[in-house]
Structure formats: C-alpha cells, structure tokens
Amino acid sequence: MSFQRISLLILVILSFAAASWYLVDTLFPPMPEPVPTPEAAPTPPKPSMAQPTPRPIPPPSTARPVPPPPQATPAAEEEEDRTEQEEMDAALAQLGSPDPAQRLEGAEILGAYPSEETELALAQVLNSDPEADVRNAAAQSLGYVEQPSDDTVAALMAALEDQNEEVRASALSSLEDYLAATDEGSKRYRQLDAGLRAKMDNRGTPKDIREAIHDILQDQAEQATH
C-alpha cells in the first residue's frame, strides 16, 4: 500500500472519530455537578407535654365547729319576765311623777310593753296630761298595741281635736295603723272607719286632721279595689 493511501485512511478514521465524539456530546451532554445546598437549621425539640403537677389537697380544717346558741332555760325565762315586769312597773310609776321629763320617759318606755295595764294608763295620760310632749309620747306608744280596746280607740279619737298639732298627728297615725292592721269588714274596722268619717265631717275637727283623714280613707278605698 502506498503512503498516500495510508495517509488517506488515517484521515478518514480521524474524521469518523471526531464525528462520533461530536454526536455523543450532542445527544448525551454531561450531567452538571450538583450544587451543594446550605445545611438546614436543626429543628428545635417540641416542648414536653408533661402533665402539670397537681396541687396538694389541703388537710381538713381543724377548727372547732361553732356551737349553737344555748337555749333559754325556764329559770332564765322567768328572770327575763321578772326584769321586764320591773321595768314596766317603774315606767308606770313615772307617769305619776310631778316632773314632766319623768312622765315623758315613762310614756316612751311603755311603748315597748303593750298590755292592758299599760294601754289603760297611756290612754289616761293622752287625755289628761297637761304637757303636750307627754301626751304626744302616749299617743305614739299606743300605736304599738296590736288589739286596742274601745277605750283606747275613743281616747285617740278625742285626741284628734287636741290643741297641739303634734299630738293630733300622732293620734291619727296610731289610728291609721289600727285601720291598716284590721281586716276589712270586721267590727273593729267598721268602728274605726265610722269614727274617722265622723271626725272628718265634724267642723270642730281641725282642718289639717280633716284633710289627713280624707287622704287616709281614700287610700284605703283604692287598696280595697285592687
């Protein structure tokens, strides 16, 4: 083989090899090298879900229970009754004192001890004592009587014409309390109602009392209709 043919053959082989490498690079490009990623920050551990520590149960109280109040014994009740009787007797005695201050104090104290005896004494003071303050105290104390007698009602009705305005007002206030505490239609209610109406129609009754009685009876009538 001549030198020219050998040279031509080598040239052809090199050309074929170059074409082959080009074809391989085109069809199968080289894979890029992976880019290193930054390391992720470590995930913090989740908080513990441990159960809360239970509170200690306090020990039971060692305080002693409060004892109930002692009940009154018969001897204590007798002593209390005796003390009240002594106070009432002393107040009744004060009504006969020449000192108006003593009579006034006695009339005020007897309001706390309503009884037939004190009721009668207060009614007498209401219609006879020369001091208006004493009569006024008697009229107020009679208002605490739950079941007044006819004499008491009559004494209070008469006091509606007293010369002193405060005495008249206190007497009417006690009668109003009696009327409010009495069942409508009862004998006592009719007695009180009739007595007040008679005073209201009497021109000798002071005007302030007649007007006040009118208001009281009107209120009673309105309450009866409801």
Low-confidence stretches: none
The assigned CATH architecture of the domain at 83-225 is: Alpha Horseshoe
Helix/strand order: HHHHHHHHH
Question: What is the CATH homology-level superfamily of the domain at 83-225?
Answer: Leucine-rich Repeat Variant
Global geometry: elongated
Organism: Methylomagnum ishizawai
Region (Disordered): 35-100
Biased composition (Acidic residues): 76-89
Protein name: HEAT repeat-containing protein
What would you say this structure looks like, in words?
It holds the Pfam family HEAT_2. With 226 residues, this protein is mainly alpha-helical. The chain has a domain at 83-225: Leucine-rich Repeat Variant (Alpha Horseshoe), CATH 1.25.10.10. It contains 9 helices and no strands. The chain has helices at residues 3-27, 74-94, 100-109, 116-128, 132-142, 150-159, 165-181, 187-201, 207-225. The longest helix has 25 residues, at 3-27. The mean pLDDT is 82.
Which key terms come to mind for this protein?
226 residues; Leucine-rich Repeat Variant; elongated; ARM-type_fold; single chain; HEAT repeat-containing protein; ARM-like; 9 helices; mainly alpha
Brief digest:
This protein is mainly alpha-helical and 226 residues long.
Present the secondary structure layout:
Elements: H1 3-27, H2 74-94, H3 100-109, H4 116-128, H5 132-142, H6 150-159, H7 165-181, H8 187-201, H9 207-225
Helix pairs in contact: 2-3, 3-5, 4-5, 4-6, 5-7, 6-7, 7-9, 8-9
